[in-house]
Structure formats: structure tokens, C-alpha cells
Amino acid sequence: MNKLSHYRTILSQSNWQRDESPLPIAVADWLMHTESLTLKLQQVCANLTVGSMQQGWVQAGSAPSICAHQREWLREVLLKCGENQWIFAQTIFPEETIKHVAQEVVNLGNDPIGLWLFPQNPTRVSLEWQQDSETGLYMRRSQLRLRNYPLEIRELFLEQFPFE
Fold it and tell me: Is residue 119 within 8 Å of 109, Cβ to Cβ?
């Protein structure tokens, strides 16, 4: 299995939790951050880059899904600090969200989604985390609403991510 497939498998787990009390403080500081993760990353990494791994339309259910009956725009990126791979992220937009409030997303390319999304003041519906039992990697899942349309962001913090 290649790395991207492995990352997707890890992010597809369903043992999400909201209680941050079992998390080490340094880890909770990142996983439970409610503002733009991009801006927080830029504070600790002067040369943060985003590499688009895949983006395009998928049928709901063929990827991590937040809706049952329509196509979704799936965007997968790798965030790096210099040469260090820090985060693999998936953003899922139902077709209705793209059509009504997020047309720009299909043209983001290698631009960070947080710099586009958070100035629009999305409403956070939930913020959950889990730790993969096999690799020990931490991940988080944010469900948001942008002008009442849903989207979801999943982030897998990779081995080289400096929590401290």
C-alpha cells in the first residue's frame, strides 16, 4: 500500500472523540485549535508549502463522506515545512456547498484552504480527534458550515510533525 492510501485508511477510522483530557497538552494545543490551522502552522514554519495530491469530484460514499446522495469535491493536500511532511489533509465539500458558497475551492490548487475559508467566518459544528492505534499518529476532524452549507476537514499529523 502506498503512503497516500495508508493515510486515507487511517483517516477513514471511526473512533472519533471530543474529550481532550487524555491528550498531552502540546498535542491538544494543535488538535483542539479552533481557528485556522494554516495560520498557526505559518507561525512556526516560515516556509510552509501546500502540495495538492488529488482534487476532483467523487461520488458520495467513494471517499470519506458527509452527505449521502450527491457528488462531493474531495481535495487532498500534503502540508510541508521545508522538506518535512507535516500534515496530510482532506477537505470534503458536498456539491451544493461548492455550487452555492465555495466555487473558488475548485481553483485553489496549492493555496492553503484555511486562508480562503476562515476569513468567511464558518461555523464549527464539531471538532474531534483520535490516535491511530497502529502508527500512533494523531488526527482531527472538523465539521463546519459556511453560510449554512456543510464541509469537513480531516488532518493527519505525520511522523515529522513537531508537537512540542
Answer: no
